Amino acid sequence: MNIRRFQQLLDAYGTREKNWPAEEREAARALLNSDAECASLVQQYQSLDEHLDEYVTRMPPGLGQRILSQLPAPLIDRIIGWLIPDVSSQIWQPAIAGSLLLILGMIIGASMMGSFLDDAGSESNWDEEIYLFALDDTSLIGLNDE
User: Fold this and answer.
1) Domain ranges (residues) in the chain
2) How many CA atoms are closer than 13 Å to the CA of 136, on its beta-carbon side?
3) Can you spell out the DSSP letters for 24-91?
4) For residue 70, how many other CB atoms are within 10 A of its CB?
5) Using an 8 Å Cβ cutoff, are 13 and 19 in contact?
6) Which of 2, 19, 30, 146 could join 13 via S-S bond, C-beta 3.0 to 4.6 A?
């Protein structure tokens, strides 16, 4: 360890030995005990360390709240705000949200229409499917007679 490296340690880690890198701590102590120039450097840096320890940042009042107010709202809050707007925004947004559910139901219903037809394309399954939709067990009695 030389005086240049010792000064780099003081610049980076300060005068507290516990902050120095463990692998260089013993060499730095040995140089500090043997060199008067290193001891004077430590005294100069100690006053800097004391000033830095005394320094307290002062945050302007309301700064934390201003920072938090600039963060975007959570996704669920934005969705709810879009679906249920306040009085000053447009009313058509809830109507669109409701119609999306209607359109989704129509798409699901249209995709199930293919399951009503058998491989030949006939409509023989229609009667059975309609009875299942109606949830009427008495209607199946007529099918068993055929």
Assistant:
1) 3-54, 68-144
2) 13
3) HHHHHHHHHHH-HHHHHHHHHHHHHHHHHHH----PPTTHHHHHHHHSPPPHHHHHHHHHS--TTS-S
4) 7
5) yes
6) 19
The count of residues in the chain is 146
The tens-digit pLDDT sequence of the chain (146 residues) is 888 988 899 888 888 888 888 898 899 888 888 888 888 888 888 888 888 888 888 888 888 888 888 888 888 888 877 777 665 556 666 777 788 888 888 888 877 766 555 555 555 566 666 666 666 555 555 555 55
Helices (H) and strands (E) in the chain, counts: 8, 0
Q: Hunting for tokens 């120095």 — which residue is that? A: 20
Give CA separation, 114 vs 60, 127, 133, 134, in Å: 67, 15, 16, 19
Q: What is Dmax (Cα atoms) for the chain?
A: 114
Enter the pTM of the model. 0.38
Tokens encoding 39:
């001891």
